[in-house]
Design a protein that fits this description.
mainly alpha; 66 residues; 0% strand
Length: 66
């Protein structure tokens, strides 16, 4: 593996790490979100469901594009 390839791999890995970090902060903040955002747990659940459905639909095509 050449140096530019290692650099690209490091960048993609770092972006993936940030993605997972943001996804994992939501469960930790779940008890606080309803009071902070003035919503109920059903609204948060709907938002998370939409996020996961969109992620499932676009993950394969975007992975192939990359």
């Amino acid at each position: 593996m050449t140096a530019p390839q290692r650099g690209l791999l490091a960048q993609v890995s770092a972006a993936h790490l940030v993605s997972h970090f943001h996804i994992m902060t939501v469960p930790a903040l779940l008890p606080l979100l309803p009071t902070i955002m003035s919503v109920n747990f059903v609204d948060i659940g709907i938002a998370l469901a939409i996020f996961n459905i969109v992620t499932a639909v676009v993950q394969a095509p975007l992975g192939y594009a990359v």
